[in-house]
Amino acid sequence: MSEKVEITVVKTKPLKSTTSVEGLLVQCSNNNWYAVLTMRPSRNPWYMKAVSATSTGRTNITEEQFSKRCTGSIRPETEEGIELLLNALNGLEVPKDKIAY
């Protein structure tokens, strides 16, 4: 009987972006990179999401791990996004909110 290994964060580095999207690149113990992004689309509250990425910051927006609609006008903390990413990778339930355009 095999034990399930919990995925953890190995390394983080800032995400370089030319847009208003901010975030971190996170390397996990499964040797995959993920981008934890925070953004505020027009006429919407803050959103936080995690998507698959490369070590250089190229994201694959179709491979979304979670997306969370945040309340209030204060930008959410990146640590909260890392925690939600780890929950998603370890099989726990995470939010999958959509942006209303």
Mean pLDDT: 88
Number of strands: 5
Q: List the uncertain runs.
A: none
Q: How much helix, percentage-wise, in residues?
A: 10-25%
How far the N terminus sits from the C terminus, by CA atoms, comes to: 48 Å
| C-alpha Rg (nearest Å) | 14 Å
Q: Count of helices?
A: 1
Output the structural class: mainly beta
What keywords describe this structure?
101 residues; mainly beta; five-stranded antiparallel β-sheet; 1 helix; 12% helix; 38% strand
Q: How would you explain this protein's 3D organization?
A:
The protein has 101 residues and is mainly beta. The chain is 12% helix and 38% strand. The protein has one helix and five strands; from the N terminus they run E-E-E-E-E-H. The protein has one helix at residues 78-89; strands at residues 9-14, 22-28, 33-39, 47-53, 59-69. The chain has a five-stranded antiparallel beta sheet, covered by helices on one side. Strand 3 and strand 4 form a beta hairpin. The relative contact order is 0.21. The model has no long low-confidence stretch (mean pLDDT 88).
